[in-house]
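Hey all, sorry for the wall of text incoming. These are the four entities for the joint prediction.
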Amino acid sequence: MRRLERRPTIIDVARLAGVSKSTVARALSDGAEINPKTREAVLAAARTAGYERNHLAVGMRSGRSGMIGLVIPDIANPFWAEVARGAQDRAEEHGISLLVFSSNWDHDREARHLAALRQARVDGAIINPVADSFDDLDRFGLPFVLIGSSAERFPETSSVGSDIAQAVRLGLDNLVSRGHDMPYLLLGTKARIARARFLRAVYDHCIARDVDPAVLPTEDGDYTVEGGRAAMSRILARHPGGHISIFAANDLMALGAMLTAREQGLNCPDDVSILGFDGVPAGEFSWPGLTTIEKPARAIGRRAFDSLSEEIAGRADHSRIYLPCRLLERGSLADRAPVQRRREVA
Amino acid sequence: MRRLERRPTIIDVARLAGVSKSTVARALSDGAEINPKTREAVLAAARTAGYERNHLAVGMRSGRSGMIGLVIPDIANPFWAEVARGAQDRAEEHGISLLVFSSNWDHDREARHLAALRQARVDGAIINPVADSFDDLDRFGLPFVLIGSSAERFPETSSVGSDIAQAVRLGLDNLVSRGHDMPYLLLGTKARIARARFLRAVYDHCIARDVDPAVLPTEDGDYTVEGGRAAMSRILARHPGGHISIFAANDLMALGAMLTAREQGLNCPDDVSILGFDGVPAGEFSWPGLTTIEKPARAIGRRAFDSLSEEIAGRADHSRIYLPCRLLERGSLADRAPVQRRREVA
DNA sequence: ATGAAAGCGCTAACAT
DNA sequence: ATGTTAGCGCTTTCAT
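and here's what came out:
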């Protein structure tokens, strides 16, 4: 492996192997018609030359860059980081590189990122759109797969997300089986699709269980710890007394509610039961551990990659995939015998 | 903006603007000699043509792909996710795209990722090497910057990390000022550079404070929650009685130790004081909140990008940067008046 | 099964 | 200040 100034190209390899450069190209590409013996010889020559394929040139000529984009709100958010990890794992298995962009819930940044992806000539993208209109995505012009709740807005597109309806059923049924009444719903930011999906799932479940959805006590949050604390304060102020059950639309609000409850001298789970939604790592270390519904973040990333591969290959199923969530029982939910129910109004 | 089958190229723009394609190229590139008026006209033509630069072609011709690589152990780990976020933010400001790879602490995967980066013709890379030899990095052949503890092994290379010595000083001094004796040291995985750096910083600090480092009680962990639990059990078994102070080399072990202490009926911070290291989000929600030393993860990512830019530009400072950490006081450390010290042996 | 030749979209001399 | 020309490294017809 001589140290060259110039990096070796297929021409160098061709010379070394005593063949033409098209033969080298064929040896390098997978399904090409070539004599196995010549291929071996070429590959050996490539090895001794220290040759490495120039993906820029390959991409330019073949129209396949071997890269895909991932556009998520925040790579530092544990949920999205897990999604990224799943996508990256799968991409790696397929020899695909991943370009990662954080949109920061900003419409303009997202648009710029989509443009950057196009200019990088990625083969496709996995996107959690903050855009409320289809415009930017429509203009995207490349194959893509949507992830997360906002996918709901784009019915014509392949998407991968978690099964919110199943998740809410899981949570509510667990609460009921423990002898709880309908919990306070700690909702997320208004106008966010995720909020509407959560609420609709609760409503559907109520109707299926013959409960009047209108009686559901709700409180607005904004998916942050602080929002959870504030909402909890308001719940405490309005609550008539007795055990309080909370179902938060995400873990951060649940954790915030737990902090505020404790500061007010309330014990979780004896006085307050809190059920979260997401499955963030922090829920494992709170006291008590946060019982929550875990979204399959990494699996979402993996499946999104698979769906994107289909899209790129042109096998346009345009599938909408909802992955099931699972309940993580950790101790923030009280076990209330049905007999005790009366006392809770006291 | 007509809908073309073929994506417009500079030739289309040139035709539309009535100039040659080199003029278009000049209008598009930043520091080129061109009449401002023609540039405007060309840019306008590009806009109406719906032209978007092909970065693959640009990269191929100019030798600059406009992409850099980020190789970290695990994008799903909150610390590395923050680093990634910092690097991505800065990259975005400079119009650079980020290729992200998780090495999973695996030597072979890392080597494959470095090869992939070379083949993608990235302009450079930010790397946390798991490699214990310089070989792979030496062969890398592209500008790069090291991040994290392992950088210690490669003195000739630009690196960005946290100032462990300052961090340890911060923690130990705080412990002393609260009236604690030297704490049990909960160390990380043997043979990991990070472990040695931490230990050396403690020793240095001891010597500076005229304490015999040999008396330091240590316990081995492996940077995981489980490792922290196991180590805590051993500490509990060997501890003669009285208040226990723990200084863990990372937050996960600290959190594990906290869980075990509570399970053994010990109160934190009354019976056990625990000091962590990292600043993971979970520490905010434990009970009590974990007092810890926060590493400037996002800033490390940002600075790493800046250093890499220097390397790429050829301004080879080969700087070693250590960013300061800060103490996050959250309640897992007891305030022990000096007078109380005697009781701790009781 | 292999080689020759054309060209992907762009930049960088070199002319003018 | 702008145009002309020659590739960057590769894939892909089209011959042979």
